[in-house]
Amino acid sequence: MDHFPTNWGRPRNDAYDAYGTYPIAQRPYNGPKDAFAQGIQHTQQPIVTGTSVLALKYKDGVMLAADNLASYGSLARFKDIQRLQAIGAHTVIGAGGDMSDFQYIQAMLDELIIDEFTAQDGHTLGPAEIHEYLAQVMYARRSKMNPLWNAILVGGVKDGKRFLSFVDLLGTTYSASTLATGYGAHIALPLLRTAVEGKEDILNEEEAHKILEQSMKVLYYRDARSIDKYQVATITAEGVSISETRHLETSWSFAEGIRGYGAQTQ
Amino acid sequence: MPSIEQPQQRQFNPYSENGGTILAIAGADFSVIAGDTRQSEGYSIQTRYAPKVFRLTDRAVLAVNGFAADGNMFVKKVRQRLEWYRHAHAKDMPLRAIARLIQTMLYARRFFPFYVYNILGGIEEDGTGAVYSFDPVGSYEREACRAAGAAQSLVQPFLDNQIYFKNQLPAPGTSHPAHLPLSTVLSLVIDSFTSATERHIEVGDGLEIYIVFSKGSTSLQGLASVRGLQEVTTTDDGERVFVIRRELKKD
Amino acid sequence: MTSIGTGYDLSASTYSPDGRIFQVEYANKAVENSGTAIGLRVKDGIVLAVEKLVHSKLLVPGVNRRIQTIDRHIGLATAGLLADGRHLSNRARDEAANYRDQYRQPPPLKSVADRLGLYIQAYTLYSSVRPFGISTILGAVDKDGPALYVVEPSGVFFGYNGAAVGKGRQLAKTELEKLKLSELSTREAVIEAARIIYLVHDDAKEKDFELEITWIGDETGGLHLPVPKDLQAEAEAAAKAALETFE
Asked: Which of A187, B150, C91, C223 lies at 20 to 30 Å from C81 by C-alpha?
């Protein structure tokens, strides 16, 4: 609370704008400068990371899947992490990449949803709005050379329309009926595309889950930074639900048949 | 002497290449601007449908290619500037002014560029079809035709031969036409993309062609036989914009 | 009503000889002249209700809310200068967001009430600003259960089981004291709150009023929401019936 009229309109730069005529956000800053700012370095590598996130559109809505692991390099450090998050009543986001940046994004979106809720004006933020907001934030951070090191899938249903899109640390966005991040894009996406493309309006919830489960199994076999515990998020016109942790039934007994494996000599 | 290596450091690369190809050809009273719809990164296809060609006004269409995040953001910024112009001047920005605007917007980021190759197509104030092409830092020129993007090296030579009639002699007693009719131009565009799709891995999936016609254009008759035509004109000023979508091979 | 402080009442930075700050007391007058607001803290939640005096038939019903939502689980009802109430709601939202930013937890009502008390008190220190002309009823269900606070123009605040501010507060308080608040459910409390508001509304002095009523509890999943239309209709019908028997 500034009681002194001689302070109003300052700081201003008398060289360009002697009377403080244009909006504050654009006025040149004349205050003390942070000498340390020069030496600040920004994140160049992710530290605690999550791997793939998968998603598909099906008859009643959108389904996402992600495992429960946060790795510390090659160490499987945190094995009970939830990488799928409900945002409002219409959207779920799933993130791979740096988990601390994801926690920051979760807090940021939470604040956004609360602001929307307190307005109590009958409007709610849907998946398209959340995706656009995230894309703007991610692009702005990359343009400051200080990225949020994530690859995020945004899925949801609002007003009967299904939505599924991707955004990453560069601000690159794209949309399709099947999406995957990280290793999932190389290993799982061909499976998802074959199973889903053309059948988006036919597949029911059980079939959609089976397709995702199959892809998660393949990823557990082939991605060295994955585990066999995962969750599935389902969004329909009725709302959002994130499942309990499920276990993947996989078989590793083939290893015994490989000659030279383990204690076998011939 | 043992070699001394420089200390190595990894740094975040703010750019990426998303493949794809765009193309624009100017006619006497129309302009055609096309782009494939595949977005890729390395050997992966990110999506089979990501539009690269955008309607700015009923007279101007912008195609962007290179780094998709920069491309999409650049289109947003150009659209914002066009809206401010509309409020300030009570009319749409003329095409050559939009071209100059794009130059200044690109050059303003000379030291952290938008990694986008822009092609602006549309109708000039004098009713002629125009194509303007830009480099990522704003160097630009008006041309009769231009291809940009992954398959530029495949498509541009084809256009040089078919539109500028380079390395071709006209039949004795005739001369090359100054402008080509719409049906010929559309065939050239479709053939350019189907051929590029055959030989370039980053091109394929789908093709989106925008056609802009000047007021009272006679070339509109050429559209009668085209299937799947969709009009996207929004004003009554006389210029008209249409979109044609075609499939391309998905491999 | 109370005495006029001649000469000692021109600025909030002046004490009177008997140790009163008249500007703050005058601010309380602004509250007393406004439509009644009440809050109930019951077994499993909170109910807030406001007698929204309607000064023109041209006003759209259901807008011009006097009960605002702060964060997800806090309701803020004001009596007094309504513009001051909106300003305070914005400040409360910022304080709640700041708490969340620092602690990554939903803010307990005690913290929000404390911060608002400090904020309101700051406006009683200077001659260059005027004190807030509002009393604020804050209700929430946080990790310690249901909580209800009232912040007055002086910046002082207390926790209550039942609270009333505004014109009809005397009658409302009497009615609230009769209730066994700790045994009521939120649904029952909604009926009671509507009844009390209808009771304190003086038909002779003002013509129309709208009942604005919100709740937080198990039935809302911990969110601060307006009472559902059917429950509100039921409460208003019961309130009107109770008025008949009262007269």
From this structure: C223
